[in-house]
Design a protein that fits this description.
alpha/beta; TIM Barrel
Length: 288
């Protein structure tokens, strides 16, 4: 099967070792691309390495990192960045993203910790992102993350994210489920937050399910189907920034593959509706 390029109108799935076989056996058109965490695959050989190579030859592979720890005060691990760069080059990865958070403090914390929303943190994180882009010799996207406690907020979350994007001159991985979860947990308007993000910087989108701990507490688990309010936010996201490559995240509680493919198909349906509407509007403008 010939590998197709990653275009805006594409929908993908996460690459998990438990699903390598079903992904290899999937009928054409079930998904357009795959996403992996490079930390989990760098240096992997044997059967898993061969399966990764085969899949990345057939489908575009995008990468979503877990351990750069952009918000940490620890030095950037530049030898690790060089390994990331070689992996991205080897698999012709068109998008590399990371979390706008930190996960180390003298050692790995094995969790994504929230960064204080301060001017000093904006400058610190932006400088680290610029350095990462210099080492990798490519733009990266940073993801708006879910968080449950804020260490310090001298500015609103939306202002912090927008300041980092501007000063780092990087792209945004827009996670619509994280907007929904945070809007419930921290009591803000999800639609207003989405529309305040810079549409021109959105490179890529994530959508996922979450766990309802309580009416006012949602946990971003990636372990459940996407719910209607989050699908609605995806629809609004396309209206705001245009159709973008969109990944369905599912990290555990895996259902039958047919159910995941159905959710991917729902992404494609929403993309098609927006793309067709935009094409129709362009035709009308030309005719006028």
């Amino acid at each position: 099967m010939q590998r197709h390029p990653l275009t805006d109108r594409t929908a993908g799935l996460g690459l998990r070792r438990a699903q390598l076989g079903p992904l290899q056996d999937a009928d054409p058109g079930r998904f357009d691309f795959l996403e992996c965490a490079p930390e989990n695959w760098i240096g992997v050989g044997g059967r898993y390495g061969r399966q990764l190579a085969e899949l990345s030859e057939r489908h575009p592979l995008v990468c979503h990192g877990l351990s750069l720890s952009l918000g940490s005060s620890d030095p950037l691990d530049e030898p690790f960045l060089q390994r990331i760069r070689r992996f991205l080059d080897q698999h012709r990865v068109p998008i590399y993203s990371e979390h706008l958070s930190y996960c180390s403090d003298g050692g790995h914390l094995y969790d994504l910790m929230p960064i204080p929303f301060t001017e000093e943190a904006v400058e610190h994180v932006s400088a680290r992102i610029r350095r990462v882009q210099d080492v990798l010799e490519r733009r990266i996207a940073v993801e708006n993350v879910s968080y449950y406690a804020a260490p310090f907020q001298a500015m609103p979350e939306i202002d912090f994210i927008n300041a980092v994007l501007e000063r780092a001159d990087c792209d945004l991985l827009l996670d619509v489920n994280n907007i929904y979860v945070n809007s419930i947990n921290h009591r803000y308007d999800a639609d207003a937050f989405l529309h305040a993000l810079p549409a021109q910087r959105v490179r890529y989108i994530h959508i996922a399910g979450h766990y309802d701990e309580a009416d006012d507490l949602k946990v971003d688990t990636h372990g459940a189907p996407v719910i209607a309010p989050v699908w609605r936010l995806l629809d609004l996201a396309y209206a705001h920034c245009g159709v973008k490559p969109t990944l369905l995240e599912r990290d555990f509680n895996f259902p039958p593959m047919a159910e995941l493919f159905d959710e991917v198909a729902q992404i494609c349906s929403i993309q098609s509706r927006h793309a067709d509407a935009m094409e129709s509007a362009n035709v009308q403008r030309v005719s006028a």
